[in-house]
# Entry
Amino acid sequence: MKRLAAVLTLCVFLLCCILPAAVAEQSMKAGDYTYILQPDGTAEIILYEGSETSLVIPQELNGTAVTAIGPSAFQANNALTELTIRDGMVSLGDYAFRRCASLTKVTLPATLTEIGMNPFEGCASLTDLTVSEGNPNVYLADGVLFSREDSRLICYPMTKELSAYTLPAGTRIIGASAFYGNESLAQLVVFDTVRAIGRRAFYQCGNLRYINLQDTSISTVGADAFSGCRMLKSIAFPARVNSIADRAFQDCTALTELVFPENITFIGEMAFRNCESLTSVRLPVDLTTIGKNTFAGCVSLTELILPEELFYIGGGAFQNCESLTSVKLPAAVDYIGSEAFDGCVSLAEVSIPDTCSHIGAKAFNRCQSLQSLVVPSWTYTINPFTFSGCVSLTDIRLPAELEEIGESAFFCCYALKEIVIPDPVEVIGDKAFSNCMSLENIELPEDLENIGPDTFENCLKLINLPDLSDLYEE
# Structure
């Protein structure tokens, strides 16, 4: 039995070694083109390494018909200015010509029926886009590229200079990167037929001010969908939206108003990061998790209302929210991530539920206005730098079952005068109370085992400290 197992393990190992090599051997070269054979025996171009300025895609490579251009195959080819794709081509992969900065003219064939995510994302010079007559699926309407099959807007060129645009009636999907980087569009009117907004759909549309999503049927706002829309001032979500993906509104620096529907259960990481004008946030009642850096850098945020079922606050969730003065954490909160409130320099009052079991490193680092705090009784470790730089902190009560105080945990707490460290604490990290220049009295546990040599560095008023050198960490 053991021998059989050994043989099987060897076979699996050999397959893992052989298969990648076999896949690599399927790619072939023909001049500047690298291609692979598809199941139907036709070729798919997966890489072009030429420097032609005006290019006609060949209909054959080494005698094999070319029917597809793969994802990112021509990405960042800055030499290419004119492109003609002749009849016979069927499929154009995701981002096939992404960031071809000099590309000005493209002709698509009548045989092209399948187009992935915006193949012309970041083509900042594209002004002449043509689809040959007779194409049953792909078509242009006022210079905008669409797919009939899924009622999808594929590409609204970066160079299009309209300030206002009305989506054609019946459009169901605003595709990934569809409006990517268009700096002219200020107003978009959409109809209730719209079901989805793809990732990066309006990425860096720096002049977009208005879009009426409230009457649409979308359920998800894709990742980076409105990231960098610096002029967008407000957004009203439709009732069906239940999730907002990562970075969806990152760097929307003019955004002042958010109205969340109550059934949102997920808001992704960095979703509203650096929304500098946002002043008030009331999160939906069904939200249980706030991701990493979700509202980081919202420097004008003064009002924050959290839902009662919230139990997880991710790392950096409210980092550098400089105007936030008070936070009431719901009783359900169990986890406060690293740097969650780091740099909230105006935060003077925060209530942490007694059942919270984790407060991450630097969670309240640089909270310069924080004066007092009760650490929850279920917290067994004060992580490194948790309260570092809380220069106004005068009163902190540590839980009776605390076991460890991490490195620099109270570094530069200038106003702290006294502290009682519970008996279970066995380890105090280096510089834990360094630069606590007002510290006059500290009660240390009898069973302390390890302490850093600079734990009380520059504690100039702490004059009755016993000799702890035999406890220094090696």
User: Anything to note?
Assistant: Helices lie at 2-25.
